[in-house]
Amino acid sequence: MNQRVFTSVFELYQAAALDFQTRATQAIVARGRFCVALAGGSTPKGVYAALAQLGDVPWANIQVFWGDERCVPPDHADSNFGMARATLLDQIDIPFDHIHRIKGEMGATAATLEYQSQLEVMFDGVPVFDLIHLGLGNDGHTASLFPGQTTLENPAWVLEAFPNPDLNPQVARVSLGFTTINAARAVQFFVTGTGKSSIFAHLGHGLYPVDRVMVPQTQWWIDADVLNGLT
User: Fold this and answer.
1) Percent of the chain with pLDDT over 90
2) Class of 3-228 per CATH?
3) CB 151 within 8 A of CB 179
């Protein structure tokens, strides 16, 4: 497992923002654009707030997507897009048509089809993101791919998803599937806090959906609390 361990979440936020800037610049030089799928959650929120403060990020050539979304309006408190808009997108100069959100307010089925159409327009064949941000839930889910879901083996690019009964908010979701995630050039997991330690300790044994991520360039960005909770 390729780990980057930070003494504090603040240090992680700053390093991840700088890494984003570097990856974007390199991808644009190589291929003319940088395609990234953002994540929800408190740690990505800190990363995006740090990213908003950086200068010299080539936003004019960056295409922004999401790895998953709750089926709520974009201004809802549970919206992953809404979080990214407030912390990052409203703070930067990025072309409006470079923002490709999942329209959760349409409902899971319609939003899945609409997002699939967006990906078909932007990519030739299976979407290949330059970078996908992911998290790790307390039940081992990543994006909106949950333990025990029958859809985990589905080869579709985009899937409808429903959380486990003990996970809130209890709303339908739309998620990139593993076909799309595993086609990415790079994946970064952001995991912080002792609350994730027990799940983190059991990764790699096929117990959780996160173990299905097979991208060679996968990095785990964690803070010291994750490791401290293992002892």
Assistant:
1) 77
2) alpha beta
3) no
CB burial of 130-155 (b: ≥16 within 10 Å; e: otherwise) equals bbbbbbbbeebbbbbbbeebeeeeee
pTM of the full predicted structure? 0.96
Q: How far is CA 180 from CA 21, 37, 125, 159, 169, in A?
A: 23, 11, 10, 10, 25
Mean pLDDT of the chain: 94
Q: What is the pLDDT of residues 32-43, one digit of tens each?
A: 999 999 999 999
Of residues 1 and 40, more confidence is placed in: 40
Of residues 40, 3, 54, 37, the one with CA closest to residue 158? 37
- Contact yes or no for 33/138 (Cβ under 8 A): no
Question: HSE-up of 7 (CA within 13 Å, CB side)?
Answer: 0
Is pLDDT above 90 for 139? no
Using a 10 angstrom Cβ sphere, with 0-12 exposed, 13-18 middle and 19 or more buried, the burial of residue 226 is buried
Segment 202-208 long-range contacts (CB within 8 Å, at least 24 positions apart):
203/1, 204/1, 207/140, 207/147, 208/140, 208/141, 208/142, 208/147
Pick the closest to residue 101 from 37, 47, 182, 158 (CA basis). Answer: 37
Domain locations along the chain = 3-228
Residue that wins the pLDDT comparison between 216 and 166: 216
